[in-house]
Amino acid sequence: YLSRLLIASLLFAAQGKEKEEFTCPSHIANGNYADPVTCRRFYQVKSAAKMPPNLVVATLFVPLQCVDGFPYLNRCPSGLYFDDLQKFCTFKDEAKCGPLPTTPAPATDAPADTAQRCNTEECQLPYCFCSKDGTQIPGDLEAEKVPQIIMITFDGAVNLNNYDHYQKIFNGKRKNPNGCNIRGTFFLSHEYSNYQQIQHLGYAGHEIATESISQQLGLQDKGYEEWVGEMIGMREILRHFANVSVNDVVGMRAPFLKPGRNTQYKVLEDFGYIYDSSITVPPVPVPVWPYTLDYKISHECKSGTCPSRTFPGVWEVPLNTHYVEGFEGGHCPYMDQCVLHNLDENEVFEWLQEDFSRYYEQNKAPYMMPFHTNWFQTKPLENGLHKFLDWALELPDVYILTVTQMLQYMTDPKELRDVNQIEAWKCDKNIAVAPKPCNIWQTCALPFKIPEQNVTDTRYMETCRECPNVYPWLGDAGGTGISGRDNYIFASPSNPEESEGDD
């Protein structure tokens, strides 16, 4: 500990000298600027309003910035160098060292596309998948010979407001055609989550994924360290308090379906995630299959904040817009965003059937059903969903799976007659991503200093682990009470540990 403190003191002392060598631009534009002395460092320009609350990503970066005209230093991760053309840290032989004289002042606008259009001859499974318009079935299989996969996903906190509703869906009676229980994917946020219930979901084999700690607005415009703090911090909170293994958390979803341009996907790449599920597809007659980000996205980017460069091998599981002919109820990426509250349960059931048929009767692209808690606050919506699920599971080729199970099929697509060979779909496979939860858990009343306010509130949290000192938050996933203590190390072949620090 003392050695770390000494190193930190030396770094900060060095920064006092180094920053004198760089002057912030007179007209400050958000972005990254090359250090005039070395390619190992760069300066980041931000307004003070965009500074992250007490977030430190130590060991990889010294996270200081240009605030109100005052220069602060960032360091590239070990072994990487700042490319002044593309404005991110990369390998030495790829980096164009700056400052480049022709480099324009960076802006927050999305950069020009650098990804190329899909090349089906070069892009081959299991590591790459794309098609010209996104509608092609993997493996060039015929639609009638492949399974129709349904993915039920849930966003936000898990607590008493929704846990029983989720249990009614996954009641142990609903089975896939191979006799195995159906499973779902939970994109979790921190505030108000019950970690004993999340551990139950993990023990039952449901997929646990991240949707950020704070659900802050405007995250799509934030920098690398903010995305690391939100997503990797959330993964660490799940490890600390729901006993979910970091290795089993391989998917993320951006808050409010606002992807973080290239920044979010660099975090995905650096920290060992397999997929993202944040990009929405506008209403199209034939739905889009998931794809890897080796090539340019084949459909319109609805949010305007999609990645513009390639991230080879990273999967995108897009949210196709839900709608019916004539757009009764509107169109929506989330099921609960469509205006269906004026329908009775049979009309909701019929609406879902018609929406689903666009997939089932055409290219059998995976049918994602994303929900927030508010869907389950309206009985006709909830009952209509139950009717739809029971009806769908009567079809001989419909499987309700997690996102990861779906991707395991896509990397090695098989005809219906052979799907029983897929290891990840078998009933006897150990599916738990968390140990058996406790029967008696801790209910923790914890002090929580509301960010950007000089007010301390109380937050309650349930967990099978010991109560932390304070409510876990950005920069302090363990709830130690030491702001900015977290150290996150990205995953790499030579460094398999995703995080360090005490439990």
Question: What do these coordinates show?
Answer:
With 503 residues, this protein is of the alpha/beta class. The protein is 20% helix and 17% strand. The chain contains eight helices and 21 strands. The chain has helices spanning 2-18, 163-169, 195-203, 224-242, 261-270, 345-360, 379-392, 403-411, and strands spanning 31-34, 41-46, 66-67, 73-75, 80-83, 88-91, 148-156, 185-188, 207-210, 251-252, 275-276, 280-281, 291-293, 311-316, 319-320, 367-371, 398-400, 442-449, 456-463, 487-488, 499-500. The strands form seven sheets. Strands 7, 8, 9, 16 and 17 form a five-stranded parallel sheet that branches. Helix 2 links the parallel strand 7 (148-156) and strand 8. Helix 6 crosses helix 7. The longest helix has 19 residues, at 224-242. Residues 21-99 form the Chitin-binding type-2 domain. Residues 1-16 form the signal peptide. One of its GO terms (biological process) is carbohydrate metabolic process. InterPro entries: CE4 (IPR052740), Chitin-bd_dom (IPR002557), Chitin-bd_dom_sf (IPR036508), Glyco_hydro/deAcase_b/a-brl (IPR011330).
